[in-house]
Amino acid sequence: MTATAEREPPRPVVVTDREPADAGRHGSLIRLSPGRVVPGTRYRIVRWLGEGGMGVVYEVEHLDIARRAALKVLRVRRNEAPELADKFRDEARAASTIGAENIVEIYDFGELPDGRLMFTMELLDGHALVDEIDDAPMAIPRLLAILRQTARGLAAAHRAGIVHRDVKPENILVCRRDDGRADWVKIVDFGLARFLRGGRVEEHDLAGSPHYMAPEVCLGLPFDGRSDIYALGCVAYELMCGEPPFMDPTVDEVLRSHVSREPVALRERIGDACPRALDALVQRMLAKEPQDRFADAIDLEAAVCEVQLELGIETPWDDLPLPDVAPERREPLLALHHDPSEVLAEGLLARSRRMLVAGAAAAAIGLSAAAYAIVRTPAPTAEAHAPAETLVREAKDAAAAAAFVYPPPEDPEGPTAYRIVRRLERLDEDTEYARQRARQLRTDFATTLVGLGDRYWDLPDGRPFAAEFYTMALLFEPDHPKARQRAFVTPAQLALLAERAERGTFTPAELGAVAFIRPLAEEEDPAEAVERLEATMASVPEVPPSTRRLAERFARSQARRTAPNPATDVRPGAKAGASPEIEDARLAAGAEAADAQAPSGTAGGPKRDPAAARRATREGRRHLAAGRLAEAERAFERALTHDPRSVDAVVGLADVAFERGRYERAAKLLERATRRAPRSGGVWTRLGDAYFRALRYADAERAYRRAVELGYGAARKRLERIEDKLGR
Predict the structure, then answer these.
(1) Which of these ranges, 132-146, 380-394, 413-427, has the smallest mean pLDDT?
(2) Based on the domain organization, do 18 and 85 belong to the same domain?
């Protein structure tokens, strides 16, 4: 990162008595939110980036040297989940041991005062290959450049004695490098990596992603780096035809297919869109026996270069050092090695034609086939996409500051995500790419805003605020079903809002009326949101009286809602500190008992307390939003002791199971929830998601279809995706 003019570093946020530095060892977890300094570090939180099964990722900035980085924080305390903590530590150790160009760089590792592990790593400007699957087949020049770089990264890992074990599209990022080149590969997520002993792994658990697991791994046999080559072959296959080699309905069937079935050749799937040389390369990567694959990742990289020469293709990444293979094999590869600026400056097509005229590929595959590969699938250049990507970054930055539609009252001329998206849609150059990126931003921002509306819709006196989030969502996605249903706005009012939002002609009073957006958007805990909201109302003089009254009413409602009630919050006979793991058998038994329970007030039946159940469920949701899965599970379980019929509590337990990757368990819980709430499209959609992640595609299709029948529009895209996978 290039240093800018010196500026005063942000003042560190001091942890108050309400949230002491050692909180979390025996109390709540330390809250990490934008503007706060991460305790024990010199990093300030800039924004939330995303989350996965093990941790949450933030963008952070070093207070002294202004370097931006990504901070990954384990969801739970080290002593609560020692096995998960070991995997988290192994991920950081493995990646830092390798130290290669195409492996994500780890800067530091540590532990928060509340017991959660964390590490900082380089901040990357890019996306995962999984985002490219729907656009298959990938352009051949791009695919070869990505395969070559990934092979180089795997070769570095294998030299360091590390097998990745989870090579898949989600774990291969394509980024923009400082020199402007796109498709710079970074391999991430070494959480399942294993260190080789004697050149291979002898004993291991069955871990990884089923669609990308090598046969020897499926069988529990010893394996080495060639299992990563097999997984990369599955990725290449998916990038070309839109799905991995085997798409059986269950995990067991997928694993059996890896062991015993030959994949359908790419040319049989997509015809001439896959050159013969590339098809042969991928088939060898997918060989059942390790000895029939490439000897190692260096051998694979050389083979990728040979395919590229045979096809007469050049890419912006041909300046990479050539693979260290035998001299007689390496010498022909020298024809690839050149300055990448030549490709960027002169264009891929012109240089590729010169190679064809020189006869590099015509004899091998025929001029027409080579011309097809080059003319029909040119690699996009970084220069061509730079104006669009600049606007994309600006739009995301504005959204991260909650300036989706309205600029902040203190900066009425400031940028907004909506205005930038409209500029992107009107970009004169690189028009098709710019519009594609704008469509994606519209979907992302609308989804975020609907989620914010959902957060406040069911809270007492929260609907006026929720409706504003839904209204903003409609500006980005006018046909969003939930936003259309819940926004308090007419089509004429929406059209006027869109016009004024694009021109940026809001008055100070109008910006004051929506000053609540930022505090409510940035705080997940309603109690924290109320604090921020009250501070905003006090500091922004332009806030009109009507908005102040709404904010005061909302604050009073939240104070009443969160006030402790000893008469209902502790039930006689309830277990103190319920087990953090609820076994499936006990859950199933409890479900049947609850479903068959006598009505409230009958002899022998426990008295239901729905109000206490709702409070416990809301508490569980707060814990879940903060990643405190054990606390969330205990709260949802407590809700069921108050009201065994609570659908929200059952769904909460399912969400906890989903976050832990226990998709079958989540499905069982959601099946029970659909029996109790058979007309809830949201519950059916959640059930479809659980089935999908458990690889039960036929069941997922049925669940999504039911959600669509019930009018739940968000399930429609999921249904279309699963139908595509099943070939409907």
Answers:
(1) 380-394
(2) yes
Structural contact between residues 125 and 33, judged by C-beta atoms closer than 8 angstroms = no
**Closest residue by Cα to residue 405 from 417, 393, 420:** 417
Say if residues 595 and 649 touch (Cβ distance below 8 Å).
Answer: no
pTM of the model: 0.49
At 643, which CATH number? 1.25.40.10
Domain boundary among 375, 395, 423: 375
Amino acid in the structure at residue 418: Y
- Token readout for 240 is 């070309």
CA distances from 624 to 88, 577, 665 (A): 20, 17, 17
The pLDDT of residue 594 is above 80: no
**What does the angle CA 87 – CA 625 – CA 680 come to, to the nearest 5 degrees?**
115
Tally the residues of the chain. Answer: 728
**Residue 554 in contact with residue 465, Cβ under 8 Å?**
yes
- Half-sphere exposure at residue 75, Cβ-oriented, CA atoms within 13 angstroms: 23
On whether the CB atoms of residues 121 and 72 are closer than 8 A, the answer is yes
Say if residues 29 and 116 touch (Cβ distance below 8 Å). yes
Tens digits of residue pLDDT in 5-44: 332 333 222 222 333 333 444 456 788 888 889 998 999 9
Name the residue with higher pLDDT: 51 or 230.
Answer: 230
Distance CA 349, CA 363 (A): 19
DSSP 429: S
Q: What DSSP designation does 542 have?
A: T
Is 512 contained in some domain? yes
Considering the domain boundaries, does residue 470 fall inside one?
yes
Q: How many CA atoms lie within 13 A of 418 on its CB side?
A: 23
- Please tell me whether residues 525 and 427 are part of one structural domain: yes
Mean pLDDT of the chain: 78
The answer on 449 and 337 residing in a single domain is no
| Single residue among 98, 123, 148 that ends a domain in this structure | 123
Residue 57 CB-density burial (10 A; 0-12 exposed, 13-18 middle, 19+ buried): middle
Helix (H, G, I), strand (E, B) or coil at 71: strand
Both 427 and 547 in a single domain? yes
Q: Return the pLDDT at 207.
A: 66
Contact 480, 473 (CB under 8 A): yes
What is the full DSSP assignment across 152-177?
A: HHHHHHHHTTEE-S--SGGGEEEE--
Contacts 24+ apart (CB under 8 A), 147-150: 147/232, 147/236, 147/300, 147/304, 148/301, 148/304, 148/305, 148/308, 148/317, 148/320, 149/102, 149/183, 149/184, 149/185, 149/317, 149/320, 150/102, 150/185, 150/187, 150/232, 150/235
Does 289 lie in the same domain as 192? yes
Q: Which structural domain range is residue 89 located in?
A: 1-123
Q: Please tell me the distance from the alpha carbon of residue 203 to that of residue 221, in angstroms, as a whole number.
A: 8
The DSSP secondary-structure symbol of 200 reads B
Same domain, 644 and 556: no
Residues 337 and 278 in one domain: yes
How confident is the model at residue 384, as a pLDDT? 66
Other CB atoms within 10 Å distance of the CB of residue 51: 15
| Residue 166 domain-assigned (yes or no) | yes
**Whether 361 and 399 share a structural domain:** no
Distance CA 219, CA 259 (A): 8
Residue 451, Cβ neighbours under 10 Å: how many? 12
Residue 513 is encoded by which pair of tokens? 């009326």
Residue 505 lies in a domain: yes
> Are 608 and 600 contacting, i.e. CB atoms less than 8 angstroms apart?
yes
Average the pLDDT over each of 216-225, 560-569, 595-604 and give the range with the smallest value.
Answer: 595-604
